[in-house]
Structure formats: C-alpha cells, structure tokens
Amino acid sequence: MVDRAALGAVGAPFTLDVERGKIHELCRAVRATDPAYFTGDHPVAPPTFLTTTFFWEELMPGSNPWALVKMDQQRGMHAEQEYVFHGPPPRAGARLTCQSRITEIYEKEGRKGGTLVFAVMVTEFRDESGELVAEARLTGVETERAPETSG
Amino acid sequence: MSARWEDLVEGTAGPAPLVVGPLTRTDFVRYQGASGDMNPIHHDETFARAAGYAAPLGVGMLPAGVLGAWAASWLGPENVRRIRVRWKEQVWPGDVLTCSGKVARRYLEGGERRVDLDLLCTRQGGGVAITGWATFVVPS
B37, A81 in Cβ contact below 8 A? Predict the structure, then answer.
C-alpha cells in the first residue's frame, strides 16, 4: 500500500561509472548492434543504459528512496520510464553522481474501475563538473486488484 | 546510418521494424544480469507460480531497451535526447515482439534540428506491449 509520507523523500547520492564492458553487455541484451556502441575506448551508452543504477545503488545505503513508497508487491507495476539527456548521452569513462527523489504521488480512476495510485521517482545524473547531464523518471502504479495473471 | 533531415517529414516511418523472439527465459536472464534488476518474478519459475503467474513475467525494460536501440539505430545513438516508454500488455516467454516507429514532429529548438518519434512495440497478434516517445537531434 503506497505510503504518501514518501513524497519528497531524497536518497543519498551515489556514483555510477559508465563502463565499456557494461555497455557491451546491455547492448547484447537489447539487440543493439550499432558500431557506435562497440568502437573505441569511450563508446556511447545505449538509450536505456542508465537503468544500470541498480548495480550502483547497492553500494550506497539509503540511495534508493523508492522502497519508502511501499508499493504492494502483487499490485504494483512499473508503468512508465523516461530518460532525458541534456546533450549527448553518456560515454564509457564518464563518472556520474546520481541522486533520486520521490517527486509525485497521485491517484486516478482506472478505466476498468478502481483507484490507481501513481508514484514518480526522478533520478538526476551529474558529471564531474556538477552539470546535470541526464534525468531518469520512473512511474510506478498500484492497482486496487491484482493484475491479470496469464498471457 | 544517416537519416537526412529532408527525409524526416512528419509521418515518415523508420527503417524496417525489428522483430525479436520468440523470447526465452534466457533472454530475460541475460537482460536482468546486464541491467542489475534481479527480481525473481522474471526468471524463477517456482517464485512466479507462487505469485499466481503461469510463467515468469517478461522484464519490461527488455523490450523498452530493444525499442530504444531500434530508434537509435535509425537516428544515431549519440543523438538521442529523450526516450519515454509506457507499458501496456504484459510480455511472456515465447512472445515475438515487433519494434517500429515514425516521425511525429520535426522542428527547430535552441538552434538544433529535432524530431519527435512515436514508437511502438507489439506482440504477436498485434497487442501493444509498449507505446513510446523519443526525441533526437538531427546534426547537419
């Protein structure tokens, strides 16, 4: 059950090193074959690469405030994900400082009835000069009923 | 790859849609290992069944990543400035996904040439797995 007290919660800053091997690995997983990802010492990261914050958050206790939202395990789902780049996307070799905050919690009536509760977490990514280079926006939704259970 | 500004009029479809699949549990595991999201609902059959599912759920960021990479292969990985995805139908093992997209808008902003794309990832049979939106710059 979503806890509205999580609104405004801010995580501890954490570091994400954009690594060539990690770029290669994610590209292989998402069928990204453009030579730009595999050429030179500082290849560009694919568009959804910043999802790899998973690895880096683990090293910094308190870095991911999403847990504070307490979205139900059965009725909670990833609804939307957005990445915004304020210039070219990061390249291998970049060291980014990341910080996440819970920016929105709101309700909507679902089309099939029942209330949907949405929560949004924004993660900011800054380069070594402190400039904001990218933002990730995660939207989760909790339904009143469990989602469909077969394909 | 080098999409020309002149050719990117509104409504223009991208290159050949990318067809991926049938998706296997190995595809899910490879994606999870690469992304760091190790939620067992996407690979542990016993865990998924205990949660009431017939099979491990597809990991949503996998088709999102495929869709983003397809768009970047069209307009250049260095040129992406925004990608947003919204999940619709759940993806399952055995699904065959098709990623496609078209130009929604072409414009100048801050002295840069930009295009907004509408993106789509469908399942076999036509159900929509993901709708997406992206913005790319188009260098001279």
Answer: no
Question: What's the CATH code of the domain at B119?
Answer: 3.10.129.10
Domain containing B66 equals: 5-24+58-137
Give the type of residue at B5. Answer: W
The answer to whether B40 contacts chain A (CB < 8 Å) is no
Report the alpha-carbon distance of residue A83 to residue A96 in Å, rounded: 15
Q: Is B68 in contact with A25 (Cβ distance < 8 A)? A: no
pTM of the model: 0.95
From first to last of its 151 residues, chain A has per-residue pLDDT tens of 899 999 999 999 999 999 999 999 999 999 999 999 999 999 999 999 999 998 899 889 999 999 999 998 778 889 999 999 999 999 999 999 999 999 999 999 987 768 999 999 999 999 999 999 999 999 999 988 765 544 4
Q: How many domains does chain B have?
A: 1
Residue B62 falls inside a structural domain: yes
Architecture of the domain made up of A4-142: Roll (3.10)
ipTM: 0.96
Burial class, A35, CB count within 10 angstroms (exposed 0-12 / middle 13-18 / buried 19+): exposed
CA distances from B125 to A31, B89, B98, B121, B129 (A): 22, 12, 10, 12, 11
Q: Which of A31, A79, A147 sits opposite B69 (nearest CB)?
A: A31
State CA A139 to chain mean position distance.
9
